Sequence to fold (471 residues):
Amino acid sequence: MSSSSMRSFEYLESLPGTVFNRLYKQPSTALAIFRRMLPQLAKSFVMAMLYMPRPLPVADLDTWVRPGSRREQNTAIDLLERLQILKRTAEPNKPRSYVLTNPFAASLRQALTGGGNHRSFGVPSRTHAEGQVTKAQLDDFARRQWEGVLGYMVGSTGVGLNDEGAKLSLAVKHLLKYGRLVEVRGRSVDITQDGFAFVLQEVNAQVWTILILYLENAEELGMDRVDVLSFLFMLGSLELGQGYSKANLTDTQLQMLLDLGDFGIIYQNTPDSDSYYPTRLATTLTSDAAALRSATAGFDTALRPSNNDDKGFVVVETNYRIYAYTSSPLQIAILSLFTRLSTRYPNMVSGKMTRESVRRAISMGITGDQIIDFLYTHAHPQMRKNANFLPPTVVDQIRLWQIEGERMKSTVGFLFKDFLSAAEYEGPCQHAGDIGVLKWKNDAKRMFFVTRHEHVAAYLKSQKEKRREGG
Fold:
């Protein structure tokens, strides 16, 4: 699962069942979640059960998977249950079974076969030909607005960003502060550790991070979060360059058009126009096809698929000097967060990483591993000809500069202990590892530590029920 899928999945998992019930009434939502958030094995289970007239016994499902793939099977089943797509049934004198939940199953069938008057995939505008916006114009608008957001986050470092960039609204700045991507101290805006991690993500993951923050803030704005979620999933199914009518949108979704326009996700000729256009940032929401690594290189790939300029631009020498072959003000601003820049040419900047410049970045919350990841991701093709293209002395020194002020890292979670036997301990411990929540274990003392306890507890409960049935 990609990082953007994981972020949206974690938000969905926290929602109550009544919200899922309303969400899954929209075929576009059911299809988007099926396409984006499910691994291939989970998709296979859903498609195999979609038209089954009766529940599928657990023993029958087990025969579909090879014995050596039980871990993948458990992960897929756990994911489907957490998204409330699959549930277990236990009727008297009948074997335990699985069944797809409704309305998810009904909506997915409708999305795959068509029909109905739900209009959850948008209504094309009949008047969009008048003053029609081209794909190139939509791409330029999305690029300008999104780079304006990133420029605001890193542009306070003294490197001048393009004056032609987007002017951010107060709502956008509030959302970035609310998400702790930036810290505002008077007139100073500093990027945080989370903000730098955000900048390093592919563009699709960045967009989903912003949208999750928007969702978390929706109720404070008096918005219905089901309307918000349904609209976001619908955007991923729309066609780039096609205008869509506003006539069937709710009041919440009409307000969203204005807010999403600030981020370059939606374009409108004027706020009062009868139609809106999704940009490429919107139409790729439910697709992992574009794995974009940065704002500049990423947009060159996503917004101009025929362009082959998505190459590294950073050269790092063993003496800590850096040469960056770029004219992007945004990339230069990111470099200046941890580099003392000394020279700037039309197509290149140079500087040096020093203890002071790296420690300054660390004091802002940026980690040494994040700096190394940035240099690794954007390494120049000439450097990539070597096996270890980042000089080991530079990598080690960045980490040493970080640990000068750090000796311990804490992780919030839950400790499971006091198991009566090794067999009782090994099952839930292995299950925690399978679903990716296990952080530490001690087999000798029969103890393990997890970041989330709900599904481990559910596993223990299901094992207890199995023993009761077998006894």
